[in-house]
What we know:
Chain A is 40% helix and 18% strand. By secondary structure, chain A is α/β, with parallel strands linked by helices. Chain A is globular. The two termini of chain A are 27 Å apart. Chain A binds chain B through residues 37-46, 62, 66-67, 71, 74-76, 81-83, 312-313, 315, 329-331, 333-334, 336-338, 340-341, 343-345, 347-349, and chain B through 37-46, 62, 66-67, 71, 74-76, 81-83, 312-313, 315, 329-331, 333-334, 336-338, 340-341, 343-345, 347-349.
Amino acid sequence: MKFEILYQSKKSRARVGRIHTPHGVIDTPNFVAVGTNGSIKGLDSLVVENLGIQLMFCNTYHLLLQPGSKLIQQAGGLHRFMNRTAPIITDSGGFQVFSLAYGGVASELKSQGTKKTDASVVKITEDGVWFKSYRNGDKIFLTPESSIQAQKELGADIMISFDELPPYHTDQQSLEKSLERTHRWEKRSLDAHLANPNHQALYAVIHGGVDINLRKKSCEYLSSLPFDGFGIGGSLGKNKPEMINMLTQVMPSVPTERPNHLLGIGDLPSIAECIPLGLDTFDSSYPTKAARHGTILTPDNQHYNVTRTRFALHQRPLVDDCTCYTCQNYTASYLQHLFRAHETTAMNLASIHNLHVMVTVMAEYRRKIADGEI
Amino acid sequence: MKFEILYQSKKSRARVGRIHTPHGVIDTPNFVAVGTNGSIKGLDSLVVENLGIQLMFCNTYHLLLQPGSKLIQQAGGLHRFMNRTAPIITDSGGFQVFSLAYGGVASELKSQGTKKTDASVVKITEDGVWFKSYRNGDKIFLTPESSIQAQKELGADIMISFDELPPYHTDQQSLEKSLERTHRWEKRSLDAHLANPNHQALYAVIHGGVDINLRKKSCEYLSSLPFDGFGIGGSLGKNKPEMINMLTQVMPSVPTERPNHLLGIGDLPSIAECIPLGLDTFDSSYPTKAARHGTILTPDNQHYNVTRTRFALHQRPLVDDCTCYTCQNYTASYLQHLFRAHETTAMNLASIHNLHVMVTVMAEYRRKIADGEI
């Protein structure tokens, strides 16, 4: 993997870059679409590639349980299995495993820290994490080494180091201990990777929650190691202002010569605030999940719901002048009907539109940075 | 509408024909795909048109309740609403209304005639049928005239006369009375249609259940009227042999110079037996419904389920040498994974394949008839 910086803004930390991978180029800043099971819901790989989605995020945890990383390896790797010729990034599996323990980011935030780890679901040791398959109850032991092995079998262009995801509500001592262990796990991930590089790249994950000093310490340690790039992970705060505050203070400590990725954030308002901070890539299932509920993104960072009565007779595209397949061929009125009739075609067409908006908005950000507007 | 017969088999009643409609040609024999709500589940109109589906079946009953035929008329008709440029056929709404009364064909057959009409759902008078909207409980009165009006608003190329669907388990007197009323309703449908032809065509529906004499009487009466074609409807028997027996005896009484359509039957084995009897078109949701359960059709009239374990590592297309989009781009192994991961993309890709098989199998039947093989 090679990272070029084409333009560095003089106004902000924003930059335009290009990540070169064995499966092609990723222009940055960019949005990374999430296809958990090796498919973006309702769309097939060629449709996604033709939309111009340069990097796709697949979840190691889900693929480990179904169909299994070894089966995908036998099929020639994830690209060949799902017929995607463009780059793929996989996560370590850690996020989903710890989501099981804490019940997901949103519900953990809501619980105010009262929810405790369910010992039957997950057990954390220095070596790794025990968890139960939600598919068949099998006990599975995930370690830095086994996560990297699975990601090797999947053959992603970019892999992510195995980390611990401590909850937002945790005490200082636990957070510090978790960070130290995460650093040990990430070093082990790197060692496992470097033993068999296989033309893949490996990102570290910067942790420390909303504790700025811990975040900086994490940046310092991880940037001393030969990772190919950096994810910003762990708890990003309880709301957007807290996240932006943390990133504003931490981004100056993230190495600029390597690409970085904000894990799990990809709504348009957050992206707008993060790009001037120097963030390169963003993954989120938001644009496609929103689409499946009829929420239509517009290129001006707004959205509306096409199932609302006032669009019943809207004989125009979802967004005027939009060049996406959906807007070129179907009206908001027809989309509303398909949603109300519970036709999955509605979700597919809305997903195509929302992903197209993400692709065009990101290209527009790159132009603005290059033109000195950001 | 114009119907040409290009070849009449000397071996059987099979023929190759061509129906000319305002939205283009339908080659016969042909399969008619069912898109109940103005969309074939999981696929959009352009995909369906590019698959070569020359005639699509939409259900007036469903479209009346959502979004309403008047809204579709305001949108410029069903073709424009759903962006289909090729021919569309709509039914009268009667079938669904009577299915509510008798609980559907399959469950009525199973019930051995013990299930009685639920008076709260439907009330039949000489004038028409009262039913309750399943969406909002509104009471709606459907008559021959209102059905034709709705189909005029939808703007289908081919409309179907309003008829009564008596259950399979009925006594001779009720069946005869029902047939007489159906004939009166069909005549009223024709009169309503001819008052405003609007470049649309209207098919009669031949009734009489499995009573051959009543069927012949129905053929005689309906062929005396200027309908553009004939559907074979009502109860077709409790199994395929009974249906084939009925059709074998009745088809010689169906006028040959006008096209005919077998309502609701479209599985490959039935089509194979019906073509030599002189049937022209067949509608069924079977190929797409089967696809959504992982059942893959093959061009030799067989099928298999791709979710079975032995296809887990089948790194080949669903059907070798198949030229469909799905088989050209994805493996059976990947499709199995998508089904097992509950990804709707699996259903979409399998539907594309199964519809492609229907299109190619029907083209092959036309070739065989023209070549004197059937």
